[in-house]
Design goal:
Order of helices and strands: HHHHHHHHHH
Largest sheet: none
Structural class: mainly alpha
Radius of gyration: 16 Å
Number of strands: 0
Shape: globular
Number of helices: 10
């Protein structure tokens, strides 16, 4: 599909070189994890070529706004992605769809179509996985670096509230991620 390989190389290189080191969670690893989970959805659901293209582009650019800062990073990133995609000759309709994927990941998530539901669940897939403790520790470090929180108790309270409020959107995540997420929540409530 038009421009995908170039966009992938350009954006991933930019993220690797220029994301602040204080971003211990919203780092290149997170973008690659979201892309990997999207690829699992693509295989599982046998998505069309067009949908695969859009979802992969959305996964790659979904957090690139962090290159400019954390404030409104979805809006900023959608604008940055639009500039790159126009430069690569991506069709206007596809650009709007990718921007919609980026915006759907804004918390609280409000996906409006199937691809948006997939990217939202891919973005927070780790909440219902075995590696949740390690990944959440990276987010704790990042939020401390940003002076959003400073104590383990603030972090615990934030996690509990987030896990209680969060909802998965796809049948796969509801069946395969929600039960483990509830186990993590119970452990936090008991600790």
């Amino acid at each position: 599909m038009q421009g995908y390989r170039t966009l992938r190389k350009r954006v991933l290189s930019n993220l690797e070189a220029n994301l602040p080191k204080s971003l211990t969670y919203h780092a290149l690893d997170h973008t690659l994890d979201v892309l990997n989970v999207c690829n699992q959805y693509i295989r599982r659901e046998k998505l069309s070529g067009e949908d695969r293209y859009l979802l992969r582009m959305g996964a790659i650019v979904h957090d690139m706004g962090f290159l400019k800062g954390s404030s409104n990073h979805e809006e900023v990133g959608a604008g940055m992605a639009e500039i790159i995609m126009k430069d690569l000759g991506v069709k206007p309709k596809a650009i709007e769809q990718v921007k919609g994927l980026v915006m759907a990941t804004k918390i609280p998530q409000s996906p409006k179509n199937h691809l948006q539901r997939i990217i939202c669940d891919a973005d927070l897939d780790y909440l219902g996985r075995q590696d949740y403790p390690e990944i959440s520790e990276k987010l704790f470090e990042e939020l401390k670096n940003m002076n959003v929180i400073s104590t383990p108790q603030q972090w615990k309270d934030l996690q509990i509230n987030f896990l209680k409020a969060h909802q998965y959107h796809t049948p796969f995540a509801i069946k395969n991620r929600e039960p483990q997420k509830q186990i993590w929540l119970k452990k936090l409530l008991a600790s």
